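Quick note —
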Amino acid sequence: MTEEEILRIRAARAVNWYVLYTAPRAEKKVDERLRERGVESYLPLHRSPQVWSDRVKMVDKPLFISYVFVHCTETEALGFVRQIYGVARVVFYNGRPAIIRPSEIDAIRDFLKQAANHQLTVGEEAEILSGPLKSVSGIVQKIGRNRLRLHIEQIGVTVTVDLTEVAPVNRLK
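Predicted structure written out below.
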């Protein structure tokens, strides 16, 4: 056995973070199926306003569309393509399954914690997501439990809006 083969066998047995590419909109199901099998997986989700014609609702959306991270051996990661419905392939880099450093996974987790803690603050610019003033932005003047007061300078009016119907302007772009 050559030294290169020995290194390849050791790498296949090492537990690392790998990236699975999923079928469109199958990230949550793939994550659920992996967890049912006892595999440590990570699907970074962020809360985002979803606008329908009749309402606005905050929903959890994948941060990286069609990607799920798994903590397993290389052999297990390659096997998930055939074993888990919804997994399209393993992401490769330089001819090998891409390994994600634990520090990068931690950085994603930290980023999402900071983003979740960012609430609207007085003086911040916010945009209305639905209703007759949809897409109009204004400055937050007062924040209540379920509503906030928004001053819309273009028309010189201050309106009270439900918290679920507004989002910070920088979060939308």
